[in-house]
Amino acid sequence: MEKKDRIKGEFLRLKKQSGTHSPSIKTLLEEIPELDIKIDACFLSNPYATDLFLNYLEKDFPTYSDLRDCLEFYPPQNSDIAKIIGNTIDVSMENIFVGNGAIEIISAVLSNYCGKKIMLPIPTFSSYYEFIKEDQEIVFHELSELNNYELDVENLKEDLLNKKADSLILINPNNPNGDYLNREKVIDLLEFCKNLDCVILDESFVHFAYESDDLDLMNYYDLINTYNNLVIIKSMSKDFGIAGVRAGYGIMSKERVENLTKSSYLWNISGLASYFFDLYSQKKFREEYDVVRKKYIMNTLMFRSELSGIKGIKIYPSKANFFLIKVENDLDGNFGLNMLINHGVYVRNCSDKVGLEGSGYYRVASRTFEENINIIKAIKIELS
Amino acid sequence: MEKKDRIKGEFLRLKKQSGTHSPSIKTLLEEIPELDIKIDACFLSNPYATDLFLNYLEKDFPTYSDLRDCLEFYPPQNSDIAKIIGNTIDVSMENIFVGNGAIEIISAVLSNYCGKKIMLPIPTFSSYYEFIKEDQEIVFHELSELNNYELDVENLKEDLLNKKADSLILINPNNPNGDYLNREKVIDLLEFCKNLDCVILDESFVHFAYESDDLDLMNYYDLINTYNNLVIIKSMSKDFGIAGVRAGYGIMSKERVENLTKSSYLWNISGLASYFFDLYSQKKFREEYDVVRKKYIMNTLMFRSELSGIKGIKIYPSKANFFLIKVENDLDGNFGLNMLINHGVYVRNCSDKVGLEGSGYYRVASRTFEENINIIKAIKIELS
């Protein structure tokens, strides 16, 4: 019991240091060596896609000497990479801004193109309310527990008018609950927002969403031509499982891309990220990726089904690769710590998320088939 | 002759596309496949340091599977890396801002901490006059051909007063000529600039400079404690030969670091860059690095000695790993193109550098021992 208390204290200290993000596995392992973490269920990426990337890396660069050019030389300039991405996703390169991870694009767009009053549905990813400038203000659109934290387009429209917001951020599917707005509703909303300064549509998790049984990939890129204020943000971290490579892109008006690239962001991605985009442009890679994407979605659907069979938790609707759950009788917030200490399963305690009042909220990521089985087992034991 | 003209035309088209930077080797090889480039003497890094990094990479991660964590997971946050660097260079982590390459830091510091009128000695690295905001102005301090483009501290002081500059950028050693201001002169200048908004001291090439015969590393970090407006910028691209990894850091006041990290730059370096900084913190690695640093400097000194024996060129004083040369009778600017087409040696034509009037200026990088011999041979043939 003493050991547990010590670990608990250490964890809470590290959490405090990490601000509104969770301490990374690396930090936990370094600072609390007695922790035996087996599964990182905070981590929101497709592990099968990481396997695929590693396979290609090994095939294309059998030894590190073969990788030399990637490491030694300057990567191509931003616009050269934009050209490759543009050809791949059938969007003009002039509409593409390449980022060192999506977070760089979020930050650049927030401070350059959003107005003074930015509406943000909450709960959501904290960087969106942290990375604004001093003269900007985030106005929250609170999603309601009563409505399972699902976004209601009409409510949002009304709130935009009432609060006189000039910009809107939409994460679709949303993080941490995975609520998904279908294409029809997104268009309805964009039409309503035509006169705003900026609408950010963050598609970091859209590869795990679908609107039909064939699980085909959703795509909103074409909307950029109709809505000049729209900025679509794509992270490669989650869908392709390569957060450490730091790669993403934004799709926005030609003028906005031009303005960002002229003032900075010349060599903002690494040689390895440049290699990733080369892969991304290969039809064969994308086809193989789509197989592991669907495999992972199927996996996640099974995970959901197992989760919903567990007594004592509520699961919110999600079309992302994670589930927001509410654990009953978790007033002391111990469920997450017990999962970590007793079972080595790291789940995300959401009690620090603005808009998630009360304790007992956790975000559980879907991982590999085998890991998901073990997460389910651990939750069952913990709640029994 | 027809082939040459075609290649020439293609090269000039690509150069135009690349703005004030040279087209990369990768772009040249892709767009002009008939070019047979053997040596990239535009490229300013220590190739022996790249070897060292690759050796460590192979030892620490024998296979790509071992590298998985680096690629799959989010890298540690900016402040975690700052802590590692701080311990290594004996500077408080609170004074360190980690950057995705030095260029990210340059851009952030220019737009956040430099005032409206920034003095920049020219000729120099073009990003310094490209990455300013619309309400900022760069005022040039022209270095004189008559003085071999060497910086005269008293002249600079006078110019700062006359032009009422509020910030100063100092690249030491300077690029493209390699002129080096010793520690005493730098302190003299910082003292004079005490009341400016910001003084940027870019040390990208300082690992190749020295003030005594033992070639020991110069270090200006301590000056940060005396001069609160000083920002020291360190790239890892040149000294450690890893431009593709994108890693650098800035040393500046605690307030400035805090302000930059709070508004953005959370996960701005990759897993591989994080690994590099882990290496950087190891005494053994740094000792081995210092051996290849000195080996490379010796190499560069021999290169200089050979260059100065060639008739028809003038070499300017340099303590960097490259030499600015002036080729006599090169009014048509063909020397560089001929080096590329006839010998496969890519040298940097400096005719697009503000402050280098007239044609015939080229920057030639020192590469490996063997490559330097071949560069010398090619120049001799070309000028004979």
From TrEMBL, chains A, B:
Pfam families: Aminotran_1_2
Aminotransferase class I/classII large domain segment(s): 78-352
Organism encoding this protein: Tenacibaculum aiptasiae
Highest taxon, organism lineage: Bacteria
Protein name: Histidinol-phosphate aminotransferase family protein
UniProt key word NADP: no
Keyword terms, alphabetized: Aminotransferase, Pyridoxal phosphate, Transferase
Alphabetized GO MF terms: pyridoxal phosphate binding; transaminase activity
